[in-house]
Amino acid sequence: MSEAAILVSGLQKEFLLSHSGVGSLKTLALWWKRRQLEHLQVLRGLDFVVTQGQCMAVVGRNGAGKSTLLSLLARVYKPTSGTVEVKGRLAPLLELGAGFHPDLTGLENILFNGMILGLTRKEAMARTDAIVEFAELAHHIDSPVRTYSSGMLARLGFSVAIHVDAEVLIVDEVLAVGDFAFEQKCYKHIESFKASGGTILFVSHNMEAVRRVADRVVWLKDGQIEMDGEPDAVIRAYESG
Amino acid sequence: MRADLKELWRFRELLWAMVERELRIRYKNSFLGFFWSLLTPLMTVVVMTLVFKVFLKNDTPNYSAYVLAAYLPFMFFNLALMDSAQSVIVALPVIKKVYFPREILPLASILANFVHYLLALCVFFCYLFVVWAASAFQQAPFTWRIAFLPVLLGVSLALTLGMAFIISALNVFYEDVKYIIGVLLYLAFFLTPIMYFSENVYYAMKGWGNLWLYYAYHLNPVAELATTYKKTLVQPGKIDVAGKLVDPVPQNWALFLVTLLTSIGILVFGYWLFNRMKWRFVERP
User: What is the residue-level pLDDT of chain B in tens, covering all 285 positions?
Assistant: First the structure.
């Protein structure tokens, strides 16, 4: 058995849901006593291990905790209890082009985004050509990204994320933005990423896509793992109820 | 806190890139660009000099240089805090999607403002030089005390950073904070010896017969910094207090030491508070 790339054990996440929406000192003062804080248990103890080179899909209904799980893996949230461990460099694609600044040019944003994802300036510089080429944006790369269409932004974001030499990719339903040709290109890249030993964890509602790339599926239901196994079996169970 | 600092060090390149980005964005769509940040203090000093030297007949020699010496650091403090107050809340959509040490956000906006401040200081020294040249190189514009400037800059930076950590973190949860800070900074401008001199405070208090209020006044780190900047950057001379030219009160290093310790204390506390709160930014109710 190959080594573990993602280790999750006893993972719980709880959010405080406020109905008064304390966002100012006034509401804090007025609602001091009556402040209702609802504890929302989103993940109720997850345990799983993703081995290197595996491509795992997470399926489940809205509110099952899929995005929360990905955010925890991307270190955006801190777990309430339990641990998350990712070995190697992680590229989270929770939102393509998160951190792009509209007034900066495509090229400046590439450098900046690359560094957010953990590259050094030198490494980011060395990759700009490849990134621009993959995103097919050679003509627009010196214009500010506020002039880009959403498809162009998505292409640029995806292109940066896959060029940071990540060992683990975390993808949250973001591939549905480019046109058909670009989508195919993305899938092709994901397959070659898998073939070269990269680990992928992704969330999708598109069962066709899940069947196509995943070799393991986890079904999340109410913050717990309902089923974990072969794609066909899990998808069949998930779709029938 | 040690682990947090180590993590911050790992992301230092991102911090530099962020500072560079802030500097680049600020003037990207404006014609005069960087000169805006020099124009404002220069115009302010022209107006202040007009008001105090001409209208109010203040006879202090080198009045404009004195004002600039305290106004530039105050403006750095003011602008940097107003900028950084918004730094985290503006970046919420980003930090909900990617990880990097959150303290980079206020740090970057403070450091970008600090770069502006340093450039403004260069303009200040040009001004001193011009005045010196105009007086046919008679009296040197400043003394050996200028060597103390790096320490002053360090204390200014520490104080501003500490305040920025506190304000930017609190402002995520209570957006009133930035308005409160706006009001406090406006009041601080008058309670800081910028347009007037610490000597004004000194002789007014002496007239009352007790100096404790003079010391209390300088417990405010911003006021003590302004006083020390004036005494460090400009050749001390006679000062006009209520129509009479008096000798300057010598620099009180004990008071400065208090300010230095206060600033370091605020920095450590601010960083601690920020780190305590930073994981809840993305989960704010």
Answer: 888 999 899 888 899 988 988 888 777 766 676 777 778 888 888 898 888 888 988 888 888 889 889 999 999 999 999 999 999 999 888 888 888 999 999 999 999 999 989 988 988 888 888 888 887 777 777 788 889 999 999 999 999 999 999 999 999 988 889 999 999 999 999 999 998 999 999 999 988 888 899 999 999 999 999 999 999 998 888 888 888 888 899 889 999 999 999 999 999 999 999 999 999 888 876
Burial A185-205 (b: 16+ CB within 10 A, else e): bbeeebeebbeeebbbbbbbe
Q: How many domains would you assign to chain B?
A: 1
ipTM: 0.82
A120–B17 C-beta distance less than 8 A: no
Of B13, B21, B174, the CB nearest to A104: B21
- Write out the residue range of the structural domain in which residue A117 sits: 4-239
Which residues of A fall within a CB distance of 8 Å from B100? 116
CB contact under 8 A, A108 and B95: no
CA–CA min distance A240, chain B (Å): 32
Distance from CA of B18 to the nearest CA of A (A): 8
Identify the burial level of A57 via C-beta atoms within 10 angstroms of its C-beta, where 0-12 means exposed, 13-18 middle and 19 or more buried: buried
Counting the structural domains of chain A, the total is 1
Mutation to test the B interface, candidates A68, A80, A103, A174, most B Cβ within 10 Å: A103
Contact predicate B235/B62, CB 8 Å? yes
Judged by DSSP in three states, B211 sits in coil
Domain holding B57, by residue range, is: 2-283
